Amino acid sequence: MKKLIGIAAVVVATIAAQAQGTINFANRGAFAANGADAKVLGVSGAPLDGAGFMAQLYVGASASSLAAVGSPVPFRTGAAAGFVSASTVTTGLAGGAAASVAMRAWDASTGANYDAATTRGSSAVLSVVLGGGGSPPAVPVDLAGLAGFSLAGAGPANIPEPSTVALGLIGAGALFLRRRK
């Protein structure tokens, strides 16, 4: 029995040492410097509304190492449009560590994730100290300072001007005629 209790104590100590940092992923109440909620707007300027738009939290030890954490979440509807429902996200970094954080959002009809979407947007990168550190573990940190942002659509495809196409055809024709001689 003493061995079993000793093993259990070692397991608990190991798990506590590996405690991961946590963040409260919500943009409502995450007041920006100007005191406004961090509402996310679409290309038209209207707040993102419903499951047709998704958001995900990106976290890293530095701004250049951001990676997606947690699952994508849809935007709320009605009066809460432009906001995501609060959820606690485990980051993979140690609790109490400094981290860089950004919220990324996209139109789900233009891509399955942020990288694939053609209509998407991202918040500025924030520096936070993650929750989850200490004993007892600290509460998940809020995204205080998160600023609202808007989605941007992809620009028009690069289509060559008619004169470029015409010059190409003339050049190809000249090569063809020269080859025949």
Description:
- The structure is a single chain.
- By secondary structure, the protein is an alpha+beta fold.
- The protein has one domain (20-180).
- It has 2 helices and 9 strands.
- It has helices at residues 2-17, 162-180, and strands at residues 20-25, 40-41, 53-60, 67-74, 87-94, 98-107, 120-122, 126-129, 149-150.
- Strands 3, 4, 6, 7 and 8 form a 5-stranded antiparallel β-sheet that branches.
- Strand 3 and strand 4 form a beta hairpin.
- Residues 9-18 have low confidence and may be disordered.
How do the helices and strands line up, and which of them pair or pack?
Blueprint: H1 2-17, E1 20-25, E2 40-41, E3 53-60, E4 67-74, E5 87-94, E6 98-107, E7 120-122, E8 126-129, E9 149-150, H2 162-180
